[in-house]
Amino acid sequence: MFRHVLAAMMALAASWAMPLAAQPLPVLAATPPMGWNSWNRYGCGIDEKLIRGVADAMVANGMRDAGYTFVNIDDCWQGERDPDGYIQADAQRFPSGIRALADYVHTRGLKLGIYSDAGSKTCGGRAGSQGHEYQDARQYARWGVDYLKYDWCNTGTGAAQRNPREAYATMRDALDKAGRPIVFSICEWGDSKPWEWAQAIGQLWRTTGDIGNCWDCHLGHGGWSSLGVLQILDKQDGLRSFAGPGHWNDPDMLEVGNLPDLNANRSHFALWAMLAAPLIVGTDVVGMKPEITRILTNPHLIAIDQDALGIQGFAWLRSGDVEVWARPLAGERWAVAVLNRSAQPQTHVIDWSGEPLSDNVSQKSADLGKRRFKLVDGWTGKATGDTATPLKVSLAPRDTAVFILEPAA
């Protein structure tokens, strides 16, 4: 009897000692997560009334039905820890508590996300999860949380800095033991190349620092800076082979609705769809203008982003300020986006028969010289010719045209 008990204990100990890569993850994000996050628009100015209003608006304006699932509370929701070390919500901002808020969101067919940090404090100076990972994960599960964004502030400097692989794996293990499926968003800013190691730990990982509400700029914030849409886009080069169903490169949340130029908003959304990026909206959805709602709920662009193959797009052709992006889709289809990076109108011609379209990552090829494809406008859904003749595209400043190539019968 004792030998059997000892053998069972040794087997259990061996399972705990399994290497990180051997621990299987549930497939929680077979396609890139879609939802909303409070930070880009509101920063620390959040409370439960705002979050409830956002959930209601996402139902009313069609975002939920378009696929936006998560309502994510970012930094500054935290209060103090109780005497046992369990984190509590700020009683003034969230007097009903996170459990009640999760119930409210769930009854509307949505899911609730929350935020913490791998350091002693969050970026906003609230209680971080370092040393409390298992308590925090259990608390989130008790509350009914569905998504965790995990930041990287206050994790030390130099030789004293936490090892990011250890820090994120510790929280991953805590979430695994918490008893509830929770999508894990790694927000390490890309400093330690998480695309090389995070697939065994989380469902998505940030590839850069924070995005800013500008088209092509750096915004200084003292000791750090945020990046414009084009700056973030350019930093995705070389990363596409690491992404796929259940594990996504995250070029940060959407500034669609916050950019001053409508064309830039359109391009931002189209490019994130081509990148197979998580679509986490960061604007005021309660007071959102109709033209922004139309961009964010465009079914054709969302279908590109959510394509089941999960192949990230790439810059196919470049000519001056014009870039042509391509992405293989299920059903032998392709998405093609023609981007005008500049502040001046541009015209570009795609000679389909003269430009080989192939992808060295997925090994897929359109074989345009032998096969004809129908063209569908990605913004309107209307048929717009085929690849038998060259396509002339007129682009407004900072705008992007999108086409879906469907095999002709």
CATH fold label of the largest domain: TIM Barrel
Q: Please tally the β strands and state the result.
A: 22
Distance between the termini: 70 Å
| Structure classification | alpha/beta
Coarse morphology:
globular
Largest sheet: 8 strands, parallel
Low-confidence stretches: 1-22
CATH class of the largest domain: Alpha Beta
CATH architecture of the largest domain: Alpha-Beta Barrel
Q: What proportion of the residues form beta strands (DSSP E)?
A: 15-25%
The number of domains: 2
CATH superfamily of the largest domain: Aldolase class I
Rounded to the nearest angstrom, the radius of gyration is 23 Å
Global mean pLDDT: 93
Structure description:
With 409 residues, this protein is of the alpha/beta class. The chain folds into two domains: 23-305, TIM Barrel (Alpha-Beta Barrel), CATH 3.20.20; 314-407, Immunoglobulin-like, CATH 2.60.40. 25% of the residues lie in helices and 24% in strands. The protein has eleven helices and 22 strands. The chain has helices at 2-16, 39-42, 48-60, 63-66, 98-107, 133-143, 164-177, 229-234, 262-274, 290-296, 299-305; strands at residues 34-37, 70-72, 78-81, 87-89, 111-117, 147-151, 183-186, 204-206, 218-220, 225-227, 248-250, 279-281, 314-319, 322-329, 333-340, 346-350, 358-359, 364-365, 373-377, 383-386, 391-395, 400-407. An eight-stranded parallel sheet has the order 11-8-7-6-5-2-1-12. The protein has a six-stranded antiparallel sheet with strand order 13-14-15-22-19-20. A hairpin with a 2-residue loop joins strand 13 (314-319) and strand 14. The protein is globular. The N and C termini lie far apart (70 Å). Mean pLDDT is 93; it is low at 1-22.
